[in-house]
Design goal:
The structure holds two protein chains of two kinds.
Chain A: H1 2-12, E1 16-17, H2 30-53, H3 64-78, H4 80-85, H5 94-97, H6 104-138, H7 141-150, H8 159-192, H9 205-231, H10 238-269, H11 274-282, H12 286-310, H13 315-341, H14 343-346, E2 353-354, H15 367-387
Antiparallel strand pairs in A: 1-2
Helix pairs in contact in A: 2-3, 2-8, 2-9, 2-13, 2-15, 3-6, 3-9, 3-15, 6-7, 6-8, 8-9, 9-10, 9-13, 10-12, 10-13, 12-13
Chain B: H1 3-26, H2 40-47, H3 55-69, H4 79-83, H5 87-91, H6 104-111
Classes of the chains: A mainly alpha, B mainly alpha.
Amino acid sequence: MEQNFQHLYDMLSQVQGFIYPNELDLQWGLLIVLYPYITGLVAGAFILASLERVFNVKVLGPTYQLALLTALAFLLVATMPLVSHLGHPERFYEILMTPHSTSAMAIFGFVYLWYLMVVLLLEIWFDYRQDIVIWSKETKGFKGRIYKILTLGVTDLSPSTIKWDDKIGYFITVVGIPSAFMLHGYVGFIFGSIKANPWWSTVLMPVIFLFSAMVSGIALVLFIYMAVSFFRKQKIDMPALDSIAKFLFYILVIDFTMEGLDQIHRIYEAEESFEILFLLVHGPLFLTLFVFQIFLGTVVPLISLGTLQLYKPSEKIRKIIYLSCSLLVLFGIFFMRWNVVIGGQLFSKSFYGFTGYKLHLLGSEGFLFSIIWVIIPFFILAFLLWLLPPWKKVGQHENN
Amino acid sequence: MPPQLKRLIPLFAIFIFLFLAARSFLVPKSFGEQGHYRFNSIAENKEKAMIYAGKEACDDCHSDRIQEMETDLHKGISCETCHGPGSAHIANPDSIKPMIPKGRDFCGMCHSLNPSRSKLVHQVDLKEHNVTENCIECHNPHLPCQMKK
């Protein structure tokens, strides 16, 4: 009891103005910030891969498999922040057992399963099938046994079968693009459809989430490609790196414009919630919105990458700029999610006050526990790169 | 049909079959009977033993106390609000006695200073007001306007 009172007094000391009693504590913390962040990285990485496969941007070839494996590594943990946020995580499957058509979250479960099973796993399997069969014959021991299982018993490497791998893989990528859009468009929809919250309720939200997802996913692949090349002591394919950076710049321009449009619309409309939102962005969100998201995460990368479209300095300088930009974009998009999720809960729906959010270090919603879900995908990716190294691939898909 | 599809289609069919099989085990039997919920949960909740007896049950033996309370600010508050569930006490009046709360925190649940609380409820800053004594040493909880000391 004493602890509860202490917590109540601590929280009350953070309140400004008038709030309703149920607005004192934020129900969605860092874990819910990570959920759209990680899902966005998946969608973005996949869309970058599809540029090479469907839109035939051949210069991106060296990053195609890396982008797919990155998407898979992050997709495998994408739901974990949500599940670990539940009071009863062991009941997570119930939403899939008895889905309701009015439950967006239940539909997400199926979109997620579709994306994992039908899009990513199949696309990677078809892309690697020829290599898996070869590796299963050449490799001994535990790794060899994994390859044998992964062949699913299909060891036929005749030209017609390999051609089928290519055709079906291409078809799955085509289906995968709208699937990736749905996956992340849905995450935006979950926030955009909450009409009681003026910071979230905008039809542009799915589009904004989608473009920010593409930006963060491309930045992640850019970073991972540079990191993997560094650890493997391999020379970076500069045309590929320049092209990824060019796409990052283009999508960043669209993303920034979309978010700008949304804010201009909000400012011009100036609904009754405008005053509190104005105070929100100039008060509790000032640092995370203006400094982290807009200045460091968007304006600095935009200017840097934009300059490189006109002027090409030496490879070494370009690499440093690309590395810095990718990290800044990843940092900025994280705070974009933060500003949406946390920002939307900081102001009272009475529009007359604010509550506060204190991120704890320990506990199930704390920083240390949450950061695990960001670190684990890198270990999964390391395992996937050990199992399915893109640099050892024999089979390459043809132009479609 | 290419050999890959010959293998993948049955695998996906098995996956879907396993999902449906798991669903038939995991979804409760009465789910969806009357709506999107487990219908038997209503009957199960009805079967639970009552632990609160209600103010009328207290009135059978303690009518003097209830009438006394009606004259002061705590009128309308049920006995079980402070003394806890009373069904067990009514079943065994001699062996099971209701709870008698004495601590400052208990009174503080309604009366501690809280800016969001209605002004109609008398509020006290527990950190300042007679911190060494329990509330009931001075205040009569049944007749809060009357002081013991």
